[in-house]
Every structure is written in C-alpha cells, then in structure tokens.
Amino acid sequence: MNTTAKRIYYIPYMLWILLFVIAPVALIVYQSFFNLDHQATIQNYVTYLTSSTYLRMTLNSFWYAFLITLFTVLISYPAALFLNQLKHKDFWLLLIILPTWINLLLKAYAFIGIFAQNGSVNQFLGFIGIGPKQILFTDFSFIFVATYIEIPFMILPIYNAIAEIDPALLTASRDLGATNWQTLIRVILPLTRKGITAGVQAVFIPSLSLFMLTRLIGGNRVITLGTAIEEHFLTTMNWGMGSTIGVVLIIMMFISMALTGEHKRKRKEIDTGATKE
C-alpha cells in the first residue's frame, strides 16, 4: 500500500479526533476565560485556586477516585486469577461484561431500590435482628455502587495480562521451590503490571468526574468536581466557571495518565540495553 492510500485511510480517523476530541476541549478552554457577562477574564482560574470550597472538591474527587480504584483492584485481581483457572473462561467473562451493556441510570435506580429503607438489604437486616439502617445516601453506598460499576473495566485488562503469561514460567517457579504466594508476588504480579496499570487508568480517570452517582446514590453528600461542573452548567448557568473546572479536570486526567504510564520505564530499559551493547 503506497503512502497516498495510507493517508486517505487516516482521514476519517483524523476527522473524528478533530471533531469529537480536539474541538470540544478547545471550546471548554475557550469558554473558561469568560465570566457570566461574557467578558474575557482569568478570574475563574483565580477563584478556583483561591477558593477553599473548590480545593476541597478537588481533594474529595481524588480521594473517592482513589478508594474506588483501590477496592476495584482488590476485588478484580483475585477474580481475574480465578477466571483464568476455569474451564469455560469465555462464558464467565461474558457474565462479567454483561452489566456494562445496561444503562448506568438503570443500574443506579436498581441500587436505590436495593439500599432503600424498604429495600432488600434492609429487609434482610431486619430479618436477622439488626434492624433497618440508613444505607442509601452515604459514602459507603456511593463507593460500593461505583466500585461495582467499574469492576468489569478493571478485570478485563488484568485478565488479558494473566492469560498472556507463559505457563512454563509458572512451572519453572514451582520447580525451583517457590510457593504459590512467592510465585504470585515475584512472577505473576510483575508480569501483569501493564494490565493493572491499564485497569487503573480505565477506572481512576472516569472516577474523578462522577456526578450521576453522587446525585442518585450519594444524595449530594458526596461532592466532587463532576458535581460542581453539572451544577454550574445546568443550575447556576455559569458556563465559564464550569468550563474552568472542566479544564482542571482534564489536566488532572493527563497527570494521572503520565504517572501511570509506561514510557519512562521503557525508555530506561532501552537506554540500559544500548549501554550494554
């Protein structure tokens, strides 16, 4: 295939990136420099950086995203290990993927019914004598539901990374006297680090901007940057401030990707290999 033909195939991709990635981001950045009177200003950024409310929202966003990612990893990694040992792997993997085909709003309303005062969880607690508890509109319910929703996006990359491990390496580890725990820590974990990193990116970055679950499940007790963006765009109509928070959120996402990226490690490996040669 000649160079001209390759460039033609790139055109739809470049148009997609231009229209649905670059253009929206450029509009958000542009809008962030205007106030309610449509006057150009940097006051939005000054307000954000000097306001304890926005800084608290930023810390809340990072904290909740960290907790959601942590619990997702702790659940998904053992699950991925277990899945790789089953006979009908594809079937069980399909059952894990199926919930992602259901609309997020429907899943949120389902959990509202489960955690409500008269929901199934409280009915069970009443049956065993503990009594009904306030589960809905708490930090626990928000983190629980968010973790449940994000689990498939963590399991898939870890599952694929484990599936790519050469079984001979595991056999060699055991032949050398390593226990199952030592094999996990020294062989499987290092070889699946890319899968964990991909899962962390797939979960942590979207978790920074959750807003629907904060409304429906958190009951406005959980305030994040996503909630603030929704408030400014739909309630106060301060699109400039909402765009400013959006720009900050985009910067945070790029920082998260840079911190969890592999380029630095790969570059060191290349430099080390070149030095040895």
List the helices and strands and how they pair.
Layout: H1 3-31, H2 43-50, H3 52-83, H4 89-97, H5 104-115, H6 120-127, H7 139-163, H8 167-175, H9 180-191, H10 193-207, H11 212-216, H12 225-234, H13 239-259, H14 263-276
Helix pairs in contact: 1-13, 3-7, 3-10, 7-10, 8-9, 12-13
Membrane topology: Multi-pass membrane protein
Domain ABC transmembrane type-1: 58-260
Subcellular location: Cell membrane
Overview in brief:
The chain has 277 residues and is an all-alpha fold. 75% of the residues lie in helices and 0% in strands. It has one domain (33-260): MetI-like fold (Orthogonal Bundle).
Structural class by secondary-structure content: mainly alpha
CATH architecture group name:
Orthogonal Bundle
Radius of gyration of CA atoms, rounded to a whole number: 23 Å
Helix content: over 70%
What's the rounded overall pLDDT mean? 88
CATH topology: MetI-like fold
H/E topology pattern? HHHHHHHHHHHHHH
Total helix count?
A: 14
Shape: globular
Strand content: under 5%
Q: CATH top level? A: Mainly Alpha
Uncertain regions spanning at least 5 consecutive residues: 266-277
- Per DSSP E runs of 2 or more residues, the count of β-strands stands at 0
What do we call the CATH homologous superfamily? MetI-like
Q: How many angstroms separate the termini? A: 35 Å
Protein name: Spermidine putrescine ABC transporter transmembrane protein
Transmembrane segments: 12-33, 62-84, 91-115, 135-159, 196-217, 237-259
Main location: membrane
Pfam families: BPD_transp_1
